[in-house]
Task: structure prediction
Amino acid sequence: QMKLAYLTPRGKQCNLTISYIGLQSVARDEGAVQWIDSEIFYENDTLIDERGFNPIFKHVPCRIATKRGKLAGSYCVWKTPDGEKHVEIMDAEELAKVEQAAKDAMKGKVSPAWRGWKTEMWRKAVIRRASKKWMLSARVARVIEQDLKSSGFDTAASPQAPDSRRGSTIKSASGSFCSPRSPPNMLSRSVISRSI
Result:
């Protein structure tokens, strides 16, 4: 059974909170992406992120779970409707800022989601950032807005219209990929070199 959303307490209210699985499901159903996944990586995992004319992205988890080390970040990989492949990465420092912003929005209180399911929230954070590069339908925009509201954020910052920014196509031995151009202050990362 897919866990797309939860009811979470916030003061005297009960809020609908979209899970990272729910965000991915809506993005696929609405055609914003063909395929999408998000993962957590740890300090002792191998994460390769090479950029340039032959970009490479690869995540190799440490096979010994007890030796993976501290949480180091999260990433989202996706394929656009026209077949371009992208990756968005956020490190622990960036994700800590998201968590602090959520705490500030709740007047210093730590939400049950961040307290009990930090890795799930890290996945959601990077998916929301990745969504800024998608062509959003009204439904996807509403779901992201609801997710921000349930976290106490100002929804004026949520996506409202399709993003017309496009990247350049790169030819490599493994195929054609698009290197996304990000707006200022947004982390720009290379595309995926493996077949999805």
